[in-house]
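Q: Structure tokens for this one, please.
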Amino acid sequence: MFEVIKPGLQTSIQDIGRRGFISRGIPPAGAFDSYSFRIGNLIVGNGVGGPFLISSENCEAGLELTFQGPGLRVLDDVVAALTGADMSATVDGKPFPMWEAFRLRRGETITFGTAKRGARGYLCVAGGFDVPLYLGSRSTQIRGNLGGMQGRCLKPGDQLPVGNPRRPMPSLEGRVFRQDLIPQFRNPLVIRVIMGPQNDLYQEESLRLFLATEWKASSMMDRMGIRLIGPKLSFKPKPEHLKQFSGADPSNIVSDTIPIGGIQVPSGIEPIIMGVEGPGIGGYAKIATVISADLSSLGQIRPGDQLVFREVNSREAVDALREREALLQETNIEVGGREHV
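A: Here is the predicted structure, written as tokens:
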């Protein structure tokens, strides 16, 4: 069990999301960078679940830390791993190693700083955080106040229970993820997309401009979506017979499904990439959709970061996801730990 001393900027309990309820207006939520999160679970011997929204297999819950992490007191011995953005975590003043299973002992205090690169860090513990399931998931949907710790981010005084580890704790200590496979949060970030589903409504020149531009991430971002700054995109003239159903603005369409990673461009200005707490339907034309293998990268975008979109086809998108999933295997875990400085 852990006690929250300081809550951090936005610290919430997440697993890999709540599948099957988008049609009822409930977004999946879950870890925004599910790849880093699932690596953490792999390291501490938890289940890793399956691909986001594709697999029905979930996994143990961990903490998602945003930009600035919390302060936590350890109330019982546990094995934990830190992944994602480096927040200069310490345990009683000594460095908390990242991407490694580390023994935390009763009475110790974990302190986090501000993310050096990337936006979100993950604290995974053997056994996971044992909060009640809500619609099959422990994830917190922050905007809807659902799941997690009473549907909200952490606050001082919260007690975070931990479930039973799948393996004995001594056998988990010192497990590390292969260093050459650890994700690097690069800037500019290349994000692969499949064009559409409404790219046919945009001018051809704007489609080329969308792919050629180095977009800048706005400060207007959260788990719902990420707004981008760049050139205005233009639409083809809207047929008169459609205006009665969706208005005169050519970016407006009759509301339809918004996929996670869908990129809509209201009035052609400032594209918005929809995140893990985005709405299930909307009425703006989507120029492209981020492929599943790159959705995790969205969770590490900071204000001011640059993004470049690269078009791929559906076959390439499937192959990229298979390659990513192949990395989340026991064969990529090394035992013995790294030398600590």
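A few notes: Helices lie at 34-43, 169-172, 204-212, 240-246, 295-298, 314-327. The chain has two domains: 2-182, 189-325.
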